[in-house]
Write a structure and sequence with these properties.
3 domains, Double Stranded RNA Binding Domain, about 25% strand, alpha/beta, 5-stranded mixed sheet
Length: about 300
């Protein structure tokens, strides 16, 4: 049997897909796994912030189309890139164990957000990161930064920025953990929904592929990610608004914290909630409702131009 994995072509995406490939071939010795590189809209448009490109699924749509037309059998996604709603014919069937969901500071001089000099240039194109950074340090100058990890690191090396904020998971999966200057506490910057987690997407009725991937599923990761994605879906969140959330499973209890911020970081609405493991998605919906009632509805209306 030949199993084809659809993946983006970045070093990180390839590394993640190679990890899944190796695990499958080790577990199922009768299966040959091939990687099929697919260029997505998000990979092609590098001169504009994602929030300005608009739409959802900038890094997954073309891969999903390949799944639907049976050019590939599964997709390996960074869950933070996956829209809250999937095409009806596709499902996320397995969630491997999550890597560190933290954001990190990479700098040639400073060791933390707190020690950055006033007016330091910090590179990030994430509205979520920008809003939380400005909430803490309104004196910082934020510089839009797109491209893969190597491209962003070169901007730092060339002195175009004083520091950059990246996902810990990406650096660790690329073997670049030594570059991390500081792991940013969740109290300072909450991560993107699904950050650090991978999701394996397949055709809904492809039972053979679903069954052979079941061994890769990590229940605590699945429960946490489903709670976070439910929270995002209820808020109708996309890349145009700063939304963050992080869930964790503790025994049979799920703890979820979430936030919505003004674009300039002037206001952050946050809350947290705990519920039973079997109600992960309901917990996300309940937390979203609490944030909306606390003022997040006004922030979202302003960002999306609603009255």
């Amino acid at each position: 049997m030949i199993l084809k994995i659809g993946t983006r072509g970045s070093k990180l995406a390839i590394a993640q897909s190679q990890w899944v490939k190796k695990r499958i071939e080790t577990r199922h010795t009768d299966i040959q796994v091939e990687l099929v590189t697919i260029k997505t809209k998000g990979d092609k448009i590098l001169d504009s912030p994602l929030s300005q490109v608009g739409g959802k699924g900038l890094f997954v749509k073309e891969i999903e189309e390949a799944l639907l037309t049976k050019q590939v059998d599964l997709a390996v996604h960074s869950m933070k890139d996956v829209p809250a709603e999937l095409p009806e014919e596709l499902i996320l069937c397995s969630f491997p164990e999550r890597e560190d969901p933290s954001d990190v500071l990479v700098s040639t001089k400073d060791k933390s957000i707190d020690t950055l000099s006033p007016r330091s240039k910090v590179g990030t194109s994430s509205l979520r990161r920008s809003a939380q950074l400005l909430h803490m340090r309104p004196d910082l100058e934020l510089v839009p930064l797109r491209g893969n990890v190597d491209t962003r690191l070169r901007k730092l090396e060339w002195g175009e920025v004083d520091a950059i904020v990246l996902a810990a998971a990406g650096l660790k999966r690329l073997g670049l953990e030594e570059l991390i200057s500081h792991i940013i506490p969740f109290e300072q910057i909450m991560p993107a929904i699904g950050q650090g987690a991978l999701g394996l997407e397949v055709r809904r009725y492809d039972e053979r592929t679903i069954d052979l991937l079941d061994f890769l599923n990590h229940e605590p990761t699945e429960v946490a990610v489903r709670a976070e994605r439910s929270f995002l879906k209820e808020l109708e969140g996309g890349c145009q608004v700063p939304i963050a959330g992080l869930a964790r499973l503790d025994g049979d209890a799920v703890h979820l914290k979430g936030m919505v911020a003004e674009l300039d970081g002037s206001r952050i609405v946050s809350d947290e909630i705990t519920g039973k493991k079997g109600q992960a998605e309901e917990i996300g919906i309940r937390l979203a409702g609490r944030l909306l009632a606390a003022g997040a509805d006004g922030i979202l209306a302003s960002v999306y131009g609603r009255k």
